[in-house]
Amino acid sequence: MSSPYYSISEYYKDTYGEKVYKLPIKLSLTCPNRDGAACYGGCIFCSESGGSFENLPSYLTVEEQLEENKSYIGSRYKAKKFIAYFQNFTNTYMSLDEFKEIIKACNKDYIVAVSISTRSDSVTEDKLIFLNEWSKETGKDIIFELGLQTANYKTLEILNRGEDLADFIYACNLINKYNFRICTHVILSLPWDDIKDVRQTAKIINALGVKEVKVHSLFVIKDTKLYQMYKNNEFTMPSKQEYEENVIEFLRLIKKDVAVQRLVGRAPQEETAFCNWDTSWWAIRDEIVEIMNNNGFVQGDKSERIIYDKIKGV
Ligand code: SF4
């Protein structure tokens, strides 16, 4: 089955000449959306683990986590090149000195890039200036992962994101000054969004020069506010078919060179009350690919058509 979208593995091969794997690193951190700096309580869908289920304990140093994960992932997949991936919580929510230390610990010959998950309101220029110097000195690429989830500010309020679209635009503009890559997380089965919100989210991503996306459906994790809302029937979860239609529309609208990290997220069954309509992530991905291939849809075909139609109309 040929891929109708530009997958991240294709991007890695185009850029690094071979497969590249992420080495997750967990730090002892929190998030300004939990401790009151931005908001209390965190996003309604976020678990106590802060966004990932597959990490080594945070008491291990960055170097220990890199080495341990490399020896496991490296031997399993015969991998040689890796990305140091600061995944949980807000990985710029610390002093500049602390930040420098964790980044400097990633200066290994097997690391080709450092990926930093953070919030838009926590991207500051002092850290970008340091990263710019460090990247030039070491040759490592820098990727920022920012959660947008949706361009709909009303939905962002329901999600208790503690930041809005303007924060995201501000952070992207700041990061783009230094030419670092931006990866954006979006949730395309939000009960409060419709297809117009999906389209708007895709167009915002194009407009801000985002280079990678991670697409998720909405999970209901058991220790969250969303779980309480789910149990109280406070919203209707969109169907799998609606999710697939949203993902396809989103892919058709984003530019062809935006690398897609994933089309469906995953979470352990025992931790969730609702996850991917009890369907495996790869089955949903395959259905999306099949629908696109059967209809001749490819990533970016609508993005180009919009521009073409506009030019024609001049
Ligand atoms: S910003 Fe990220 S880490 Fe913080 S509460 Fe929201 S999802 Fe969780």
UniProtKB/TrEMBL annotation:
Record carries keyword Metal-binding: yes
This protein's record includes keyword Kinase: no
Keywords: 4Fe-4S, Iron, Iron-sulfur, Metal-binding, S-adenosyl-L-methionine
Pfam families per the UniProt record, alphabetical: Radical_SAM, Radical_SAM_C
Start and end residues of each Radical SAM core domain: 15-262
Entry cofactors: [4Fe-4S] cluster
Protein name per UniProt: TIGR01212 family radical SAM protein
